[in-house]
Each structure stands twice: as structure tokens, then as C-alpha cells.
């Protein structure tokens, strides 16, 4: 039975230092997400610490201090914040990726709790 309601999901997921080479720097996991009825949706709102050009975290060493919603890789997999083609979830049995951002304005309103 799905739970009604919505909440903000973590703004992103941080790459673990030991396997950073897996990251393709698409930046999608560092965008805000919303959860509606246990389904995760991407928004087009990037974390304020994500560099728009390089798609790298500008505060990587202090990311958990700077952004309380930043997730570890393990947390990100558990919450389902990585897209299906992200190398970090390749081979993860039963992994369910977020839905792509649909209407950008709508998902932004969802994220801000206005819908
Ligand atoms: S703090 Fe860095 S790693 Fe964490 S979500 Fe923001 S840009 Fe991504
Ligand atoms: S979704 Fe995966 S490949 Fe893209 S930035 Fe995040 S960790 Fe890297």
C-alpha cells in the first residue's frame, strides 16, 4: 500500500572517494527531488553547490557540512536518487530509479510544497 503525501528528498548524492572514477559527471543526482506516493521525481533545481559547467561539487570535501541533504552513495542507492544509467546502480538488484523531471514548473512547485 502506498503512503500518501509528499516530501523533499535529498538534494543529491555524494560520490564516494574510493570509486569516484565511476561517476560520469552528469550531475543529475545533485538535483533536488520530490517524493510523491513513494515515487521519486527529479526536478530541474540543482544543488547550489553543483558547478553548472563541470557538474562537479564545489564543496566536495565539506559537502555534508555545507548541505545537510547531501547523501552518501549508500544512502543515495537506498533512497533511489541515481538515474538508471548511473554506474553506481549498475547491477543493483531491484533498483528503482527516479522519474525524469516532467513539467519543470510543476516539479519546482512540488518541491517547494506549493502543490
Ligand atoms: S553538496 Fe555537492 S555532492 Fe552534495 S548534492 Fe550538492 S553538489 Fe552534490
Ligand atoms: S548520477 Fe551517477 S554519473 Fe551522474 S553525477 Fe551522479 S553519481 Fe555521477
Q: Tags for this entry?
A:
115 residues, alpha+beta, three-stranded antiparallel sheet, binds iron/sulfur cluster
Explain what this protein looks like in three dimensions.
The chain has helices at 63-66, 73-79, 104-111, and strands spanning 6-8, 12-13, 31-36, 39-46, 70-71. It has one domain (6-111). It contains 3 helices and 5 strands. The model is unreliable at 1-8 (pLDDT under 50). It has 115 residues and is an alpha+beta fold. The strands form 2 sheets. The protein has a 3-stranded antiparallel β-sheet with strand order 1-3-4, with helices on one face. Strands 2-5 form a two-stranded parallel ribbon. Residues 11-12, 14, 30, 47, 49-50, 57, 59, 63, 66-67, 70 line the site of one iron/sulfur cluster (SF4). Residues 15, 23-29, 82-83, 86, 88 line the site of one iron/sulfur cluster.
Tally of individual helices: 3
Overall structural domain count = 1
Strand proportion:
15-25%
What characteristic shape results from the CA principal axes? globular
Low-confidence stretches: 1-8
Q: Enumerate the strands of the largest sheet in spatial order, edge to edge or round the barrel.
A: 1-3-4
SSE string, helices as H and strands as E: EEEEHEHH
Which ligands does the model contain, each kind named once?
A: iron/sulfur cluster
Give average pLDDT, whole number: 80
Helix content: 10-25%
**How can the largest sheet be summarized?**
3 strands, antiparallel
Distance between the termini: 22 Å
Beta-strand segment tally: 5
Q: Measured on Cα atoms, how large is the radius of gyration?
A: 14 Å
Helical/strand content category: alpha+beta
Amino acid at each position: 500500500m502506498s503512503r500518501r503525501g509528499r516530501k523533499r528528498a535529498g538534494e543529491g548524492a555524494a560520490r564516494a572517494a574510493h570509486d569516484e572514477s565511476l561517476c560520469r559527471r552528469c550531475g543529475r543526482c545533485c538535483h533536488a527531488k520530490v517524493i510523491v506516493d513513494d515515487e521519486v521525481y527529479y526536478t530541474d533545481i540543482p544543488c547550489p553547490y553543483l558547478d553548472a559547467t563541470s557538474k562537479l561539487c564545489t564543496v566536495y570535501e565539506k559537502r555534508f557540512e555545507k548541505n545537510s541533504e547531501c547523501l552518501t552513495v549508500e544512502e543515495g542507492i537506498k533512497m533511489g536518487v541515481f538515474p538508471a544509467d548511473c554506474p553506481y546502480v549498475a547491477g543493483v538488484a531491484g533498483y528503482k530509479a527516479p522519474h525524469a523531471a516532467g513539467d519543470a514548473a510543476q516539479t519546482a512547485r512540488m518541491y517547494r510544497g506549493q502543490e
